[in-house]
Amino acid sequence: MATPHNEAERGQIAESILLPGDPLRAKFIAENFLENARCFNRVRNMLGYTGLYKGKRISVMGTGMGCPSIGIYSHELIHEYGVKRLIRVGSCGSIQESVKVGELVMAVGACTDGSYAHQYGLPGTYSATASYGLLEAAVKAARAGGHSFTAGNVLSSDLFYTETPEWKQWAAMGVLAIEMESFALYCNAARAGVDALGIFTVSDSIVTGEALPAEERQTGFTDMMETALEAAVSFTE
Ligand code: HPA
Fold first, then answer.
1. Is 9 part of a structural domain of the chain?
2. Which residues make Cβ contacts (< 8 Å) with residue 112, sequence separation at least 6?
3. Residue nearest to atom 7 of ligand 1 (CA)
4. Residue 113 is a catalytic residue
5. What CATH number does residue 128 fall under?
6. 93 lines ligand 1 (CB under 6 A)
7. Is residue 11 a part of any domain in this protein?
8. Angle at Cα 188 formed by Cα 182 and Cα 190, nearest 5°?
């Protein structure tokens, strides 16, 4: 039972999935963190794999960039493939002096400058949040692994390049960092009654202009992956 964007058969995708933006990142995760990984999707090169982590079944798939793209893929994963736990693993740009490049950020909540939630016709402003259970599992995993992190609000922006420094107004509200996908993921999960969480490594600081050097990028990435994988499988038999 394929969709226009995913050629997997039902049953080929695990109930827990990690979602990097970059499909080649999904391939890298499958090859370096999973055992017996099998590719289930190649449509639009949005690679997806299912394998084992510590003997437990888990999937990983790219989402592309932005709320429209992750909105499509996560909707199909939830509604067509029965996925129950979706963990976005990505990078973000820090907008707080206190949140340094290379550190982990967990998105307790996601704000947006986009229109994704307009579809629900809500009579106010929706507060998109992570699933508490997944967040708690990720916090536990990060602490056990000795990985320091900051947990708080992120901004899921529709804009990467902006004419004006809008990030300053979000920073003034205590928002930690900018990325582009969590709001849509959290909305889709909430609407369907499934669990979602976003975990990030800070790849750059929008405050200082500093970017993470390549070698440290790898360490931050590994810390994030360990945290996400441990959290994901903590719910699997
Ligand atoms: N903006 C949006 N997404 C990002 C950024 C950014 O500055 N850095 C890493 N992901």
1. no
2. 67, 128, 155, 156, 157, 158, 183
3. 93
4. no
5. 3.40.50.1580
6. yes
7. no
8. 95
Q: What is the pLDDT of residues 32-65, one digit of tens each?
A: 999 999 999 999 999 999 999 999 999 999 999 9
Ligand 1 atom with the smallest distance to the CA of 157 is 2
Domains identified in the chain, total number: 1
Q: What confidence score (pLDDT) does residue 214 get?
A: 81
Residue 236 has pLDDT above 90, yes or no: no
Q: Pick the residue whose CA is nearest to atom 6 on ligand 1.
A: 93
Closest to 228 (Cα-Cα) out of 190, 196, 203, 186 = 196
Q: What is the residue range of 124's domain? A: 16-233
Ligand 1 neighbour 179 (Cβ under 6 A): yes
Mean predicted lDDT score pLDDT of the chain: 96
Ligand 1 contact via 207 beta carbon (within 6 Å): no
| 160 CB near ligand 1 (under 6 Å) | yes
Q: pLDDT for 165-200, tens place per residue?
A: 999 999 999 999 999 999 999 999 999 999 999 999
d(CA 106, CA 124): 25
Least confident of 16-25, 89-98, 128-137, 213-222: 213-222
| Token code pair at residue 71 | 């909105």
